Amino acid sequence: MQLNETHDVGKRSWLDSANQAETDFPIQNLPFCVFRRACGGTAAIGVGIGDQILDLAAALESGAIPRSPGLDAAAAQTRLNALMALDRGEQSSLRKKLSALLDASCDGAQRERAAGHLVPMRDAELLLPVEIGDYTDFLTSAWHTERHGRFKGLQDPLPKAFFSLPVAYHGRASSIRVSGTHATRPWGQIRDAQGGVRFAPSEAMDFELELAAFVGQGNQQGRRVEIGRAGEHLFGYCLMNDWSAKDIQWWEQVLGPFLGKSFMTVVSPWVVTAEALAPYRGRMDPRPAGTAAILPHLAGGNETLDLVMEAWLQTSRMRGEGTPGVRLTRTNPRNLSWNFEQMLAHHTSNGCNLRTGDLLGSGTVSGASDDAMGCMTEMTSAGASALQLPNGETRSWLQDGDEVFFRARAAREGFASIGFGECRSRILPANAGDSAAS
């Protein structure tokens, strides 16, 4: 992905809110979303700029953005899939047109035309941006994997295959929801310390701090994607909370996660494009000494996105007291042992066909240090050591009413800092009617 004028740190927008240092959405970002006006109306594709959303289809219709048949058709949809499937050159061209339209140097007539298609974010409802046909979640943090293996008492906490391939499981796309959707505590089979199994609400609710990538153009079945071209198939990224019921998951996990995960996964509503993130890459952590060399079909790069990712917790008591929440962790995808290009290349290495809109999760983004752990399980040693919160509360696992929210920013000297917005969701009590007797 080549850098161009859209990444220029000196660019400013005629929209003042896009020039504020704290904004996630300066003119250098221009993420996509799907929104609906809070007062009602149909869903539309939008572009984030400052504290506003530019209605893409309306801007094209008015001539504020130069039109083309393919772009017009894609922008008129109520999901991003058709836009994501466009030729990479046409996507880059659209980014340049948007950047020019929102730039401070844009002439008055065009600026006035564009201003008529802006919707304040506070007046919009953000929807699930992509029609997700398939969802694969990976396991790419050695730190997360090894800790969980120890908690479960495995003789070999880090599987032998871990450094040979990006381990993954096939998730449930039907239960993926957009930020702001709350998760009902699930019922499931749980094995207690004495070996008894009962059907009950999960007592070990956890979050998983993840980054996720959307597939743009897919591949034909039977044709693998070469590692050197895998990045061409990645359209953009979002934050993801792969909600987990660890007690259900650990009892059932023979082939892989199932009901302990499939009840809810939450993604942020903004898709930050791969082109916007082109300047923000860094080297992954070195692999342990003695680790086998990566096989050629997955080799060819040790860089990944360089982001600061955070998980925050706000309890019911904090909300009642007006406390905004407490940061639990701060981590970076550079802690992972595999990047998204390798995940995609591995996914297709047997000829599996990926399709536009497919979602790839990074797995929990955990690092070596205590303050870089990406889930409660790690922070509390699987519930054995309660987490002390600043207001005097403690947590071994998440409780009903707890709200978890993720944030992430990309920063690099010589470039503007850009963000992802929030991925937010709350734990609701288990449904009382779902009982063992019913």
UniProtKB/TrEMBL annotation:
Keyword vocabulary terms for this entry: Calcium, Hydrolase, Magnesium, Metal-binding, Phenylalanine catabolism, Tyrosine catabolism
Residues annotated as binding Mg(2+): D242, K261, T265
GO molecular function annotation: fumarylacetoacetase activity; metal ion binding
Domain Fumarylacetoacetase N-terminal: 28-129
Binding-site residues, Ca(2+): D137, E208, E210, D242
One of the protein's GO biological processes: L-phenylalanine catabolic process
Binding residue positions for substrate: Q249, T364
InterPro entries: Fumarylacetoacetase, Fumarylacetoacetase-like_C, Fumarylacetoacetase_C_sf, Fumarylacetoacetase_N, Fumarylacetoacetase_N_sf
Domain Fumarylacetoacetase-like C-terminal: start-end pairs: 155-427
Keyword set includes Ubl conjugation: no
Active site: H144 (proton acceptor)
Entries under Pfam families matching the protein: FAA_hydrolase (PF01557), FAA_hydrolase_N (PF09298)
Enzyme class: hydrolase
Involved pathway(s): Amino-acid degradation; L-phenylalanine degradation; acetoacetate and fumarate from L-phenylalanine: step 6/6
UniProt cofactor(s): Ca(2+); Mg(2+)
EC number in record: 3.7.1.2
Keyword Ribonucleoprotein: no
Origin superkingdom: Bacteria
Designated name of the protein: fumarylacetoacetase
Source organism: Pigmentiphaga humi
